[in-house]
């Protein structure tokens, strides 16, 4: 279904062009989106927003309908990916700046087309989801972008043109967010069923 056929009405910015975007920096794209929502929407709407890191212990997570995909299904196996979920109880919405699905996309559609079923999936590819409230993400996340440097010190993908995100407590803690170790303090970690159930009990 195209974005025109499935246009979503939301107080949260609903056009990609309204969002800051840098390819391969999904975590910063979502941080910027959360900041935009905080600045432009009522507090009660921002409180519905969560940042979601998707990864696993092997750091091999398949997602479909990604614009970077070179195959007919637009499948990409990322080491991690980051999206924002707007928890509108009527129909939760996913904001993924890297998908070819609608933007935003109903969670039900994103789960079926973008995440896919895990029943026949090899265990090393099964995804875990670290869900962090938007305000917590804005106030705790930091990245000096060193994870995007190759062995020679060059950029694997050009960085954003704004300064790295940091907090008073840290200049680089991105690996804590990518980790699916449940003992790490940021947000809560779920398997696929738990993630879907958190936002829409009809999907688990």
From TrEMBL:
Record has ATP-binding as a keyword: no
Ribonucleoprotein as UniProt keyword: no
E.C. number: 3.5.1.122
Pfam families with a match to the protein in the record: Nt_Gln_amidase
Domain Protein N-terminal glutamine amidohydrolase alpha beta roll as annotated: residue spans: 21-198
Keywords from the UniProt entry: Hydrolase
Gene3D superfamilies assigned to the protein according to its UniProt record, in alphabetical order: Protein N-terminal glutamine amidohydrolase, alpha beta roll
InterPro entries: N_Gln_amidohydro_ab_roll_sf, NTAQ1, Prot_N_Gln_amidohydro_ab_roll
Main EC class the enzyme belongs to: hydrolase
Function: Mediates the side-chain deamidation of N-terminal glutamine residues to glutamate, an important step in N-end rule pathway of protein degradation. Conversion of the resulting N-terminal glutamine to glutamate renders the protein susceptible to arginylation, polyubiquitination and degradation as specified by the N-end rule. Does not act on substrates with internal or C-terminal glutamine and does not act on non-glutamine residues in any position.
Sequence similarity: Belongs to the NTAQ1 family.
Record-given protein name: Protein N-terminal glutamine amidohydrolase
Source species: Aplysia californica
């Amino acid at each position: 279904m195209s974005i025109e056929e499935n246009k979503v009405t939301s107080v949260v910015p609903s056009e990609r062009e309204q969002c800051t975007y840098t390819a391969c920096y999904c975590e910063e794209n979502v941080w910027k989106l959360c900041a935009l929502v905080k600045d432009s929407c009522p507090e009660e709407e921002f409180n519905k927003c969560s940042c979601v890191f998707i990864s696993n212990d092997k750091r091999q997570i398949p997602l479909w309908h990604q614009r970077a995909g070179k195959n007919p299904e637009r499948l990409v196996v990322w080491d991690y990916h980051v999206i924002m979920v707007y928890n509108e109880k009527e129909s939760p919405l996913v904001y993924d700046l890297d998908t070819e699905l609608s933007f935003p996309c109903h969670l039900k559609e994103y789960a079926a087309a973008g995440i896919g079923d895990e029943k026949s999936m090899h265990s090393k590819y099964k995804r875990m989801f670290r869900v962090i409230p938007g305000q917590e993400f804005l106030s705790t996340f930091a990245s000096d972008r060193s994870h995007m440097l190759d062995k020679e010190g060059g950029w694997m993908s050009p960085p954003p043109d704004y300064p790295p995100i940091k907090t008073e407590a840290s200049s680089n803690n991105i690996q804590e967010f990518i980790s699916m170790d449940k003992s790490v303090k940021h947000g809560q970690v779920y398997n696929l069923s738990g993630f879907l159930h958190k936002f829409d009990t009809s999907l688990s």
